[in-house]
Task: inverse folding
């Protein structure tokens, strides 16, 4: 009884294991656009997770069907079946090379197997009625006779008896294992001698304006192509003209017109006896534009003016400066210039003004604009006095002086006995000099001055001058 229970459990395990294998190794891949078996392909052979990957090359070089195949099979072995009216033999010759991998034999049947590897175009598995025995010209070249070690290669022949409805079979080969998806990655190969591999169109096609008169295209490389033809139009539905051919996955189109929209599409091509082309990629478009002005700054330049400056924009014919009294308010154009700075005058002292700048380029007599810069702001305040100086007048007095400041209501002089100490106001004056008397002999005094302008009942101050010292 115990022995029976053990056998029952063992068989249950085998059944469950087999079921799980069938589920785990569901095929993935593109059967509708297979490779052509008539080209030599280098690939990694692996069907199951526990298989050691092997680098293999495979190419179909001979194929016989109909009466020719029937004759070959009959000559190879008289015991091979004669096909019925709705049947035919298919004989295929491959060149197989075990390029590299573990030092263990690779059987030809591990790569292509008569009972597991052939499918119809519609995806139905082909179960051969019979496989051919080779004993004459092809003796020793069957799928179970050919065994290779790394670096070796050989011809290998397959003979399968199938229904005529099978047509040219498609070969399915395990070309890797995705452990995350728990699936074999299958490659598909057409044996049809007239089959032409579809050339894949470029994907992820993108375009951006790289300068005011150029656009940069980029895309993802398509498998097994020789290069790409790039087409351009100024209308999405207009006539596209080929402008370039490249083997790269990017292209910069120069000498464009600023502000004109350009449309692009790309074809892949593959060189051979005749050059084959893919379908067009999706259409992408771009409008070359001027760069946005950068390093924009606004500073007070006097009691009633603000200076705005920025970095030069390549290709710009000029710049327009816009002003508002609110960061989110309505902006009005206050200046159009060709230089990279603008001084805005006749402003109200101590009022905040907001500025933004955009570049323009003249194209065919019209201005084509870039984007606005970031917003910057400043308050007009009196300028700092210039030419500030301090000198000794006597052993107990010193004199400070400076140049007149436009718009100033007056000046304030501050003094300290330490350069980093506390400064006190010693004089407010409308003059541009002041003599400080009754000082202590042999002592050093430090001075600084600022301008002020009276607006209503408020004094609006400039920044400080540099500090000057006098030793008595």
Result:
């Amino acid at each position: 009884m115990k022995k029976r229970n053990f056998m029952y459990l063992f068989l249950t395990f085998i059944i469950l294991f087999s079921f799980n294998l069938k589920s785990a190794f569901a095929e993935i891949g593109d059967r509708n656009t297979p490779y052509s078996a008539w080209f030599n392909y280098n690939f990694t052979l692996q069907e199951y997770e526990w298989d050691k990957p092997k680098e293999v090359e495979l190419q179909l070089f001979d194929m016989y069907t109909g009466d020719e195949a029937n004759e070959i099979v009959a000559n190879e072995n008289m015991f091979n079946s004669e096909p019925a009216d709705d049947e035919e033999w298919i004989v295929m010759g491959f060149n197989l090379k075990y390029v590299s991998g573990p030092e263990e034999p690779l059987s030809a049947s591990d790569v292509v197997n008569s009972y597991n590897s052939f499918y119809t175009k519609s995806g139905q598995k082909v179960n051969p009625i019979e496989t051919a025995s080779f004993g004459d010209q092809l003796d020793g070249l069957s799928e179970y006779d050919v065994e290779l070690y790394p670096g070796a290669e050989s011809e290998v022949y397959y003979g399968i008896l199938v229904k005529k409805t099978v047509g040219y079979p498609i070969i399915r080969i395990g070309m890797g294992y995705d452990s995350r998806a728990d699936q074999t990655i299958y490659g598909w190969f057409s044996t049809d001698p007239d089959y032409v591999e579809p050339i894949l169109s470029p994907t992820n096609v993108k375009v951006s304006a790289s300068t005011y008169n150029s656009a940069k295209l980029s895309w993802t490389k398509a498998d097994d192509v020789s290069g790409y033809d790039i087409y351009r139009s100024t209308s999405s539905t207009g006539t596209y003209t080929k402008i370039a051919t490249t083997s790269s996955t990017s292209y910069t189109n120069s000498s464009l017109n600023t502000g004109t929209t350009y449309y692009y599409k790309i074809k892949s091509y593959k060189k051979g006896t005749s050059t084959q082309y893919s379908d067009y990629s999706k259409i992408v478009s771009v409008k070359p534009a001027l760069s946005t002005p950068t390093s924009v700054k606004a500073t007070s330049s006097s009691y009633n003016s603000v200076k705005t400056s920025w970095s030069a924009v390549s290709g710009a014919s000029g710049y327009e400066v816009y002003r508002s009294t609110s960061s989110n308010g309505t902006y009005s154009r206050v200046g159009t210039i060709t230089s990279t700075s603008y001084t805005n005058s006749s402003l109200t002292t101590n009022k905040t003004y907001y500025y933004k700048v955009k570049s323009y380029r003249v194209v065919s007599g019209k201005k084509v604009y870039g984007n606005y810069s970031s917003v910057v702001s400043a308050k007009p305040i009196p300028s700092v006095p210039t030419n500030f100086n301090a000198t000794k007048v006597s052993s107990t007095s010193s004199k400070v002086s400076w140049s007149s400041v436009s718009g100033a209501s007056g000046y304030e002089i501050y003094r300290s006995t330490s350069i980093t100490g506390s400064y006190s106001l010693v004089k407010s004056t409308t003059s541009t000099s002041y003599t400080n008397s009754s000082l202590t002999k042999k002592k050093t005094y430090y001075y600084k001055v600022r301008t002020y302008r009276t607006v209503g009942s408020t004094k609006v101050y400039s920044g400080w001058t540099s500090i000057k010292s006098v030793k008595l």
